[in-house]
Amino acid sequence: MFARFFGRNKEENKEKIDQGLARTKSSVFDRIKELFVESDVTPELYDDLEALLIQGDVGMAVTEPLIERLRAANLKRADEVRAALKAELVKILTTHIKRAPDEPRLLTVHLFIGVNGTGKTTSIAKLASVYSKQGRKVALAAADTFRAAAIDQLQVWGGRVGVPVIAHQPGADPGAVVYDAIVYSFSHKTDLLLIDTAGRLTTKFNLMQELGKIHAVASKQVHAAPHETFLVLDATTGQNAISQAKNFTEVAKVTGIILSKLDGTAKGGVAFAITQELGIPIRFVTTGEHLDDIAEFDPQDFVDDLLE
Fold it and tell me: What is the pLDDT of residue 226?
């Protein structure tokens, strides 16, 4: 999985996640680790653990039943509680990972959605850069025609990455942009098309209409497209990211989450709340400003980095 997406080994990918979690670890999860210094389990341990998990933005809906399960296990040693905690956290992050096997196809289409300011466009650029270095032939579609700045931004990133950007004038029909991008991709033997979309949630009706049109155009031109729909969420917004996500999942069939700006928050525990409450796996995290500051999300590595 790691080699297929990034051409880097697992240790390098894990290092990216570890760097992104530095603030989260230093603010909350280092204090959680201190709870397990004493060998014996006390009632206060569970109370303190519950409070710290909530502070770390794991959320009440995840934390309360998790603590109840740990209490019910009647563990006697703190290291046993720590091991059980890690296992529970990994389970939360992996429960909803059900990926269909990759199928060979002439053109793969990925759709990206999310509100403005979440890092959607830069996440697209980072993935475009990684895939290009891997040898894929990538194109970008500027289907966020609502904001002229969105088109300009994607074109700037496309220039930096060295991939073409198919765009129309501001206010154009997003479906027409997608159609032209698919035609371009086939004629230029592009094998991966990444589509940026409008981030507004002014009315869900408008968003539903727009995404519906994009889906219809893509699926008519390419079998089963879009093959992935990624929702980009800003980790620094904490629990607010969940309410944003619920709005989008009502109008789009989201297949995976990209958790952006993980390096900018002290509350990376929101990853657990996102996964459990939405039932959608986190697929990638972004961890900085550079094009290679993106990592495939690995639940075991994530939990190990928080609690080791």
Answer: 97
